[in-house]
Amino acid sequence: MSQTVVAKRYAKALFEAAQERQLLEQVEREWRGIAETWAGSEELRGWLSHPTVNLDQKKQTVNQLFGELSDISRNLLYLLLDRGREAIIGEIYAEYKALVFEAKGIAEAEVISAAPLSQEEKQALSQAFEQRIGKKLNITNRVDSDLLGGVIVRIGDRLYDGCLRGKLARFQKQLAKTHVG
């Protein structure tokens, strides 16, 4: 079974348990911290996955690093350690976050622009796309100076290309198809 499928199953179970106890936001914050710590520390990843480190030592380390966790988060971390699946921590967080956003009617949007977007520009983009997709947007801005101008908006598997580079490329293709005679 692929790691993504396994991560989705764990995330769904985590989501259902957190939703039942009305802890969606708290668990999301906890797992964001866990995932960021995991991704940011090669030393931690190496140590927790090392075969000579016993399970009690691993759990003790988790307790020291993440002392103030809900029982739901702590139990899932222990389960991952028990089963040697700590490598999917980041994927579990990403899947859990997607489930929380879906439940709240929020969509993740990545906006790629030639320069950083102002708060007003983010607001305008949010309003335009919220009407189109029927969900609130959580916008992450990425700067790509090669765009020349405009923006590219990615919401889920949809891509809205409104950048100057994309418009020029489409115009060039259209010109290539045109026969002058």
Brief descriptors of the model:
single chain, 181 residues, alpha+beta, Peroxidase, domain 1, Glutaredoxin, 2 domains, 4-stranded mixed beta sheet, 8 helices, 14% strand, ion transport, CF(1)
Molecular structure report:
The protein folds into 2 domains: 3-102, N-terminal domain of the delta subunit of the F1F0-ATP synthase (Peroxidase, domain 1, Orthogonal Bundle), CATH 1.10.520; 105-177, Glutaredoxin (3-Layer(aba) Sandwich), CATH 3.40.30. Strands 2-1-3-4 form a 4-stranded mixed beta sheet. With 181 residues, it is α+β, with helices and mostly antiparallel strands. It is built from 8 helices and 4 strands. Belongs to the ATPase delta chain family.
Count of domain modules = 2
Low-confidence regions: none
User: What is the count of β-strands?
Assistant: 4
The CATH topology of the largest domain, please? Peroxidase, domain 1
Helices, by number, come to 8
Biggest pleated sheet: 4 strands, mixed
What is the fourth-level CATH superfamily of the largest domain? N-terminal domain of the delta subunit of the F1F0-ATP synthase
In sequence order, what are the helices and strands, one letter per element?
HHHHHHEHEEEH
Radius of gyration: 21 Å
User: Which CATH top level class of the largest domain fits?
Assistant: Mainly Alpha
For the termini, the CA-CA separation is: 59 Å
Provide the residue-averaged pLDDT: 87
Morphology call: elongated
Strand percent estimate = 5-15%
Considering DSSP H and I runs of 4 or more, what fraction of the residues is helical?
A: 55-70%
Structural class: alpha+beta
Biggest β-sheet: strands ordered side by side in the sheet? 2-1-3-4
Organism: Marinithermofilum abyssi
Keywords: ATP synthesis, Cell membrane, CF(1), Hydrogen ion transport, Ion transport, Membrane, Transport
InterPro entries: ATP_synth_OSCP/delta_N_sf (IPR026015), ATPase_OSCP/d_CS (IPR020781), ATPase_OSCP/dsu (IPR000711)
Protein name: ATP synthase subunit delta
